[in-house]
Write a structure and sequence with these properties.
This protein is α+β, with helices and mostly antiparallel strands and 190 residues long. It has a domain of 131 residues: Yope Regulator, Chain: A (2-Layer Sandwich). The protein is 36% helix and 21% strand. Strand 5 and strand 6 form a beta hairpin. This is YbjN domain-containing protein. Pfam families: YbjN.
Length: 190
């Protein structure tokens, strides 16, 4: 394609052309998006299954296109297992990686030179970011926030409140303490 929305090989290094291509791609995919607060930023909302949504910031700069999406806040407990799970997943992901900020909050990040940005790359990037943020979300909650979840469950049950937002975890919350920690001894590498 050689229209303004889809850069040709010769104009892929233009930030304006790449920004237009990113905007055209997310529009064509029917995704919710808006211009970000920073020049060259597109903020895309990716719908999830485990995590309600993942918000991805795509920033077009002269040096390349970077992506940054929040995954989950810093774990309350089991930090070593929590971060080990993320590092193991890093080995299986193409073009993105988990990173943490100064507070320990987890993000998925990416960076590619502008010449590498086309529809195929954007499709792979958005799919990989969504998978990295959404697929392990329940497991990460179980590893890093189990005590808080149990307290929330007990509080809701004691008051007759709905436990609907915790239904995905009923198997570990409704039965009391477990001998086996989530993600261990079940034959998978988190």
């Amino acid at each position: 394609m050689t229209d303004d929305a889809h850069p040709t090989q010769t104009d892929r290094t233009s930030t304006e052309a790449v920004l237009a291509a990113v905007e055209a791609f997310v529009s064509e995919q029917g995704l919710d998006w808006e211009r970000g607060a920073r020049e060259g930023e597109v903020v895309v909302t990716l719908p999830g299954e485990h995590k309600l949504k993942t918000v991805l910031s795509l920033l077009v700069r002269e040096r390349g296109l970077s992506g940054n999406a929040f995954v989950i806040r810093n774990a309350d407990e089991a930090h070593e297992r929590f971060y080990r799970t993320l590092l193991r997943r890093n080995l299986r992901m193409a073009g993105v990686a988990y990173a943490i900020d100064a507070s320990g909050d987890v993000y998925v990040t990416s960076h590619v030179p502008l010449v590498g940005v086309d529809d195929a790359y954007l499709d792979q990037l958005l799919g990989t970011v969504l998978e990295a943020a959404d697929e392990p979300f329940d497991e990460l909650l179980q590893i890093g926030f189990l005590t808080s979840m149990r307290k929330e469950w007990a509080w809701r049950v004691s008051r007759g409140e709905s436990t609907r937002n915790l239904d995905a975890f009923r198997h570990i919350l409704d039965t009391g303490p477990q001998d086996e920690a989530p993600g261990e001894g079940r034959g998978h590498e988190g």
